[in-house]
Design brief:
Length: 308
């Protein structure tokens, strides 16, 4: 079987217009009506179902290829298709105000070196917080950076858990090339659990990081002096000698910065993340204090960007 190159579609539309996923591939009788097309109704390029199978790796080992839909040989997505890698890369670069550069199949996003005041892990503050990086005043050039990062993530959401899709995107920071998976964390509670432990031990990343996910709630601090939006990671961590539920929290003393960061919305937030586990409280937080509007980008589940 010839191997697919590039991201693998996990959904398609059948002849009746029904949106289908890979769960129906291989069933007898088939759970869909052929012919199948790209899931973007404005595209219409034909696709074929591919069952889960094993393949031989370059080191002569074997790996499992998950079930997916592939384009027919010699065909391409429509130029405006939201699943078209080359089209999306070109669009992100064109809208990035010079912060992203593109070549076929690859996009590099430039995070300015003056994003942070230091790249050293800081000492805990009186509240026990540690931050991997200290955020500077915030250059205006960061707005297109986080907008581009969010556009990348919205594209990757259409190709969930696809390493070939993520490998198309890299970050350039202080002369270093950083893989997307080492820059943007989220959706996997275990990855955020490990990140929290690293920050707590003073071993957090020495480059800017973003966290993404779906918000599950909002609230006001007990003292009434700050506001937050949160994601319940539904996992626990041992901090300060106690097992605690772990939350991602985006906090601000300016309520206006939290207004659109509402439950049910997707988010990508960039800045100086810290780990916080108050001795008198029962929760643990992976927390970002918002100081600038550009630090967080939110969008609806359907992919529509929302302005802060």
């Amino acid at each position: 079987m010839s191997e697919h190159v590039g991201p693998r579609l996990r959904s398609a539309r059948d002849a009746t217009g029904l949106l289908i996923d890979t769960g129906g591939i291989g069933l007898t009788p088939e759970a869909f009506t052929r012919p199948l097309t790209c899931p973007d109704p404005g595209c219409g390029v034909g696709v074929a179902p591919v069952r889960e199978h094993s393949r031989t790796t370059e080191t002569r080992g074997t790996s499992t290829v998950a079930a997916h839909f592939r384009l027919h040989p010699g065909t391409r997505h429509h130029p405006t298709c939201q699943y078209d890698p080359d089209g999306i890369i070109a669009t992100i670069a064109a809208n990035s105000e010079g912060t992203a550069t593109a070549v076929p199949g690859r996009l590099r996003l430039l995070v300015p070196a003056d994003f942070t005041g230091t790249t050293r892990t800081t000492s805990p503050d009186p509240g026990g917080r540690r931050t991997a990086l200290q955020i500077a005043a915030g250059p205006s050039s960061m707005s297109p950076v986080i907008g581009s990062a969010a556009a990348i993530q919205r594209f990757l959401d259409r190709y969930p858990d696809d390493p070939q899709a993520a490998a198309m995107f890299h970050i350039s920071y202080a002369g270093r090339d950083i893989a997307w998976a080492d820059f943007c964390f989220g959706d996997d509670p275990i990855a955020l659990l490990h990140l929290t432990r690293r920050i707590t031990k003073g071993q957090g990343p020495d480059h800017p990081i973003a966290i993404r996910g779906t918000l599950t709630g909002t609230g006001v601090a007990r003292a009434g002096t700050s506001f937050y939006a949160e994601q319940d990671l539904r996992t626990r961590i041992v901090l300060a000698g106690r097992s605690r539920p772990l939350y991602v929290r985006i906090r601000s003393r300016d309520e206006r910065l939290i207004e659109t960061v509402a439950a049910g919305r997707r988010y990508l937030a960039l800045g100086a993340w810290s780990a916080f586990a108050p001795a008198a409280g029962g929760l643990a937080e992976l927390v970002l204090w918002l100081r600038k509007p550009w630090q967080v980008h939110v969008w609806s589940e359907g992919g529509q960007a929302l302005t802060i």
